[in-house]
Amino acid sequence: MPKHSGAAAPSRRALVSHLIRTRIAGDVATTRENNLDHYRELAEGNRYYWFGLDLGDRWSDPGAVLELMAERCGVVPEPGHRVGQDTIDPELTVDGLDRMAVALHKAVENRSRVLLATGHPAGLYAVHHVLAAALRAAGCTLVLPPDHLYADGGEIRHLGSVAMLHRAGGLVHTHSPDPMREILNALERAGEAPPDLVVADHGWAGCAGGRGIDTVGFADCNDPALFVAEAEGKVLVTVPLDDNVPPHFYAPMTAYLLAQAGLPQPA
Q1: d(C-alpha 181, C-alpha 10), whole Å
Q2: 229 is in which domain, residue-wise?
Q3: Is residue 26 left, alpha or beta, with left meaning phi > 0 and alpha meaning psi from -120 to 50?
Q4: Reduced to 3 states, what is the DSSP secondary structure of residue 141?
Q5: Judging by beta carbons within 10 Å of its beta carbon (0-12, 13-18, 19+), is residue 102 exposed, middle or buried?
Q6: Which one of 7, 27, 154, 191 is separated from 91 by 20 to 30 angstroms, measured CA to CA?
Q7: What is the CATH number of the domain that holds 242?
Q8: Burial (0-12, 13-18, 19+ Cβ within 10 Å), 204
Q9: pLDDT digits 0-9 by tens, 192-232
Q10: Which of 192, 191, 230, 190 is nearest to 214 (CA)?
C-alpha cells in the first residue's frame, strides 16, 4: 500500500526498540499473577472478562487460554511460570500494527464510516484521536455517539471524535461493553447503518465485534477476550501492548501505523 510522505515514522527495528524501552511491549508492568487470574476468570465464564462477546463454553480450559495468549500476545508459554514477570512480544505488536494498517487503508479506499472509542482515556486516547484526525483527512466519515446517551452510570461523550465514558466529572477507564451497545442501539433506533469499521479496545471493541461489525483493537496481556475474538474471527485484528503507559510513549507507534496505512501524519 502507498506510504504517506508526511512526518517520518520509525523503522520496524527502531519501533521494536522503542516498544521495549517504554515497556509498551517486552517486560511489561502487568504481572504473571494478574494475567493468570484473568485467564482463569474468562475460562470460568465471568462475563466481565468476556468484553461483551459470547464465548460459550469453547474456552473453559485456562490452559488453552494461556496457549492462545502465548501464541498471539507473547506471554511466557510455560504453565509452571506462576509469579513474577510476564511479557508481550514486540514483534507480535508490530505484526498486529501491520495487519491493522491494512484494515485502515481499506477503510480509506472505501470511504468508510468509522467509529473510534476507548476505555483508556488516560492512555490509548493518544492513539485514537490521531487516527481519527487522519481518517477524516483521508476521506472517511467518523461516526459519533448521539448526545445524551448513558451507560454504566455515566454519559457517553466524544472528544476529538473518539467516544469515551464520562462519570463524576471525568473520563473513566472501563472494560464494559455497555457504552458501545448503547451507541449501536441508538444508531439502529435512528435508522442509521452501523459503522463499517470500529477501532477500539476493551468492551467497546468486543461488543462491536460480537455484533458482526468489522473491528480492530488494542489489548493488554491481561485482557484475553479480544485475542480469543480474533482467533474466532469475530475481531479482525488485536494488537498486543501495554494499554496504559504514559500517552506520549505511543507517538512513534502511532506514526508507524499511519505510515503503514498510507495515512497523513499529524502536523
Answers
A1: 36
A2: 19-26+90-261
A3: left
A4: strand
A5: middle
A6: 7
A7: 3.40.50
A8: buried
A9: 999 999 999 999 999 999 999 999 999 999 999 999 999 99
A10: 230
Query: What whole-number percentage of the chain has pLDDT above 90?
Result: 96
Q: Is residue 3 part of a domain?
A: no
pLDDT for the residue numbered 206: 98
SS3 for 148-207 is CEEECCEEEEEECCEEEEEECCEEECCCCCHHHHHHHHHHHHCCCCCCCEEEEEHHHHHH
Count of beta carbons in the 10 Å neighbourhood of residue 216? 28
100 located within any domain: yes
CA proximity to 134, closest of 258, 1, 3: 258
Number of folded domains that form the chain: 1
Tracing cell 446517551 back to the chain, one arrives at 149
Query: Nearest Cα to 233, choosing from 203, 217, 202, 210?
Result: 210
Cα distances (Å, whole numbers) of residue 147 to 6, 128, 164, 197: 35, 20, 12, 21
In a domain, 65, yes or no: no
Q: Are 35 and 220 in contact, with CB atoms under 8 Å apart?
A: no
* Contact in structure between 201 and 215 (CB atoms under 8 Å): no
Question: In the 8-state DSSP scheme, what is residue 234?
Answer: S
pTM of the predicted model as reported, rounded to 2 decimal places: 0.95
pLDDT tens, 49-71?
999 999 999 999 999 999 999 99
| Element housing 106 (H / E) | helix 90-109
Sequence-separated (6 or more) residues with CB below 8 Å from residue 5: none
> What is the torsion angle, in degrees rounded to the nearest 10, for the CA atoms of residue 248, residue 250, residue 254 and residue 260?
140
